[in-house]
Structure formats: C-alpha cells, structure tokens
Specification:
4 helices; Glucose Permease (Domain IIA); 2 domains; alpha+beta; single chain; 9-stranded antiparallel β-sheet; 290 residues
C-alpha cells in the first residue's frame, strides 16, 4: 500500500499547487510595477500556468477566474498595455500548443458521448503531455476525464470510491471502422492510487483502422465491460466497453493513442502517430462537449 500512498500524496500536492499557486502569484504581481522585470516574470509564469495546470483537479471555472483577476490587476497597475500584451501572449501560446508537431491524421471520432470531457494529458510537448516522457508508442497519447457540473473530474479531491469520478462507467465508442486485433476484459478495477505495473494498459481494445496500417488503443477499461473480441469487425461509433480503472492508472480515465508498427495484439509497441479526434487536435485542458 506504500505505493498507493505515494501516488495519493503526489496528487494532493499537485492539487494544492493548482489551487494555491495562482493566489500567491497574483499577490506577487499586485506588488510590482507593471513595467518592472519582476512583473513581467510573474505575469509570464501565471500565463504559462494557465495552460499547463491540471484545472480539472480543482474546478475548471477557476481557470478563468484567475485569468480575469490577473487582467484586472494588470490594467490597474499599467493601463491597457499590460492586459493587451498578455492576451496576445495567450493567443500565440494557444496557437503553438494547438499546432501538432507532425501532420495529424483526420477523420476519427471522439470516443465518448453524453457530457463535457477534458483532456488532462495531450499534445506535442511534455509541458502538457506526460506521455512525451515515456515510450515512443504513446508520445501523442491522450488521457481524458469527464467534468461534473462544478467543472471538476470528481466529487472530492482524491476520492477512494471509483463511482465518485464522473467518467467511471461511461460508454467507450469506436473512433473508427476497423478490425479488433486484441481485447482484454478480465483485469480488476483498482482503487485510485493502486497501480498494476505488470499490465499497464489494463483492460483494453486494440483496433486496426480499416484500409491502413494504424492501430488505435483504448485502455484502462472497466472489468467485464468489453463487448468485442479479437477478429471482430467494428464500425465507427460502435459501443465497445466502459471506462474503468484497470492497469497502471492513478484514477479513472480513458487513455487513447494511435500507433504504427509493433505486434498487432500489443498495445504499447510501435511508433505513436498524431491524430485529430472529432476534427480537433486536442491538448491539455481542451474541452469536448460530446
């Protein structure tokens, strides 16, 4: 259980930083002259934090409250120039983050429906996608959660009950037409913080995209929920399974990545391929209303 305690502690620290750092930085900004080097430093830090922080851990609406508070402070301290320049910085940063490192394949559907979904890891840089620090197969992978009415991914900071996570049990739909090359459904759903390092993908479905050499991986699925088997052909939009918490995962979410090469029945081999889901290149804090 020591490992689960470490995971919980790390996530609680992340939540504390996400919630408290903006107040501390806003206080630093307010005490500086708008044309000073200190103001520029802290303003840049806060604007970068706007993009890279895990806002789903606290409340997604808090993200915009922080931004409005900063722009108000910048205006009070230096007139219209600081907030205008800040908005320009945000726009350029947004464009850079939203531009894929390589040509992204279009035409795949978003694999979830019936809610507001938030990408917590995704994009072409490690600043917004922890998968970039792992193997090449997952370098463009996405981790997706569902937000509740308060804009958080769960009821509580890090609840132990799986049902407290809004995405747990959501139906997963095939993002493409193709052939199932592997499907696993018997692994247990673990308590948040417990990691299965021997079976990192947990329960998963692996689909060879029709008419291509690409494979789509949908992982961390609910035990016993997978409704397809190897060799079965599926249509885009077909129900496949439900979101669970199996494998090496800190809490319920859907993991998606597309790869080329490797064994057809192995989810973590091959080379990662960038892909647009629902016509969009998704990065951390992208919202999808499906």
């Amino acid at each position: 259980m020591r490992g689960s305690e470490n995971v919980r502690n790390r996530l609680l620290v992340t939540i504390a930083v996400s919630a408290l750092a903006p107040f501390w930085v806003l206080n630093r900004v307010w005490s500086q002259a708008a044309i000073s080097a200190d103001f520029i430093f802290w303003a840049t830090f806060l604007l970068v934090f706007f993009f890279i922080s895990r806002w789903d851990l606290v409340c997604f609406g808090f993200r915009y409250l922080v931004l409005v508070a900063f722009l108000f402070a910048a205006h009070r301290l230096g007139g219209w120039y600081p907030p205008v320049l800040s908005v320009a910085f945000l726009a350029v940063s947004w464009l850079l983050l939203r531009y894929p490192a390589a040509k992204a394949r279009p035409g795949m559907q978003f694999p979830l429906r019936g809610g507001v979904y938030c990408v917590v890891h995704g994009g072409s840089t490690w600043l917004v996608n922890q998968h970039r620090l792992g193997g090449v197969s997952q370098r463009y992978a996405l981790d997706i959660v569902r937000l509740n009415r308060l804009g958080a991914r769960a009821v509580g900071l890090y609840p132990t009950r799986l049902e407290a996570y809004r995405i747990f049990g959501d139906v997963v739909y095939s993002p493409c037409a193709g052939e199932v090359t592997a499907a696993v459904s018997e692994l247990p759903d673990l308590a948040p913080g417990e990691l299965d390092s021997r079976k990192p993908a947990g329960n998963y479905v692996l689909i060879r995209v029709a008419g291509s050499d690409l494979d789509v991986v949908l992982a961390h699925l609910m035990q016993g929920s997978v409704t397809v088997k190897s060799g079965e052909r599926v249509l885009a939009g077909q129900a496949l399974a439900r979101v669970g918490n199996s494998g090496r995962t800190t809490e319920p979410h859907l993991h998606v990545h597309v790869k080329r090469g490797g064994e057809r029945d192995t989810p973590l081999e091959g080379i990662g391929v960038p892909v647009r889901l629902g016509g969009k290149w998704l990065v951390r804090n992208s919202l999808v209303r499906a």
